[in-house]
Amino acid sequence: MGSLMLDMREADIEFRRKVKSLPGAEKLVFCFQCGSCTPDCPVAKRVDAFRPRRIARLALLGFKETLFSGNLLWLCLGCFSCTEICPQDVRPTELIEALRELGTGEGLLPSGIKNLVRSLVSKGRIHAITKTKEKARRKLGLPPLKEPDLEQLRIIFEAAGLGGFSGGGKA
Q: Are 14 and 46 in contact (CB under 8 A)?
């Protein structure tokens, strides 16, 4: 695994405070970087840059830009392997989920996820329903898909603080 050089002058003190107050990050300060969370992580086994303890460290130190500059937070499968093994009960999975929510609220999503969400809001689906799919559904005796209620989706996105994807706010 490559090392990550951090310049503390780039740390965001306000972000540190915000992270420590998030539900799911209450025990973040107890992480002493033992690394127990990594060996059972199915993502860490395949993606060198993904380490739950690295995410905890970046959050604790206030490296917002580093955390949200790529898709690192979105690689977590939510399997809770790291949470089950953590000797300090830091709950890395919950921390990652909390960071995702924070980033989503601030429009800090990877472009691929933004595109999926925009497709969902504009079309009601993330994948197109092609003629081939329609034919396969008929062959299986399935009813035609109803057109999504885009206004209801817009209301849900607004209520979830994701108004930027439906025309207002940050996206």
A: no
Nearest to 92 by CA among 108, 72, 106: 72
Residues 6+ apart with CB under 8 A from 142: none
- Which tokens is 32 given? 């002493």
Helix/strand number for the chain, H first, E second: 8, 0
The two three-digit tokens of residue 82, written as one number: 């790291």
Say how many C-beta atoms besides its own lie within 10 A of residue 167's C-beta.
12
Q: Average pLDDT per run of 10 along the chain, which is 171 residues long? A: 71 87 89 93 94 93 89 94 94 94 86 85 87 94 91 85 59 49
Residue 135 identity (one-letter amino acid)? K
Amino acid at 132: T
- Please tell me the distance from the alpha carbon of residue 71 to that of residue 94, in angstroms, as a whole number: 17
| Residue whose tokens read 């898909």 | 145
Reported as a single tens digit per residue, the pLDDT across 149-168 is: 999 988 888 887 777 765 54
Place of tokens 């979830």: 160
Comparing CA positions, the residue from 66, 91, 52 lying closest to residue 12 is 66
